[in-house]
Amino acid sequence: MKVTRLFLPALILTLATSALAHERTWAPWKIEPTVFFRTEFVSGGAGVGFYGGDRHSPAQLVLVPDVSMLNVDVEWRKLRFGVSAMEVFLPGLSVMPMRAGFTIIDRPHNYAGRLFGKTPEVYAQFKAHWAVWFDPPPYVHGGCIEVVAAIDRYGLGLSASAGVISYWSSYSAGEAGQFSLLPYVGIRLRLGTLCAGF
Question: Is the pTM of this model over 0.85?
Fold first, then answer.
């Protein structure tokens, strides 16, 4: 009887210790991902920009379209890099714009296997538009610096952004052009957004 009384607590203690050790070393849901790979089918929205005007036109508010397709982003710790197949830019068509940024705040939530949603995330990014196609010209090259606040989960996302668009426009490829800055705020709906964490 004495042996049983001593053996039973020892067995319970051994099993509990083993379970705790197993949870600490093997449970994948306890591991915070350091790399996120995100794909997004389409992102669409619009914003309002403030055009300061020049000697030819007065200051005014302008509509800033915000549509992109087939977006791919990689996040490593706090660094972010991405590319889109195409994006509307002032309001021409930018092919393969690239972006780089830094995550300020994020809160990943696992909802299926390796899939995560972020509710919320806040990040700053720079987008480079190498060539913007217009018909007819002007020809435009430009970029955008913005701060974005976003939420996404289960393939859907919503984000709001504020930033400054800069662009260089000219009416022929070799002609001296004009540099402009356009502060703006906008909102976008993101469809088919899936974020895998590793």
Answer: no
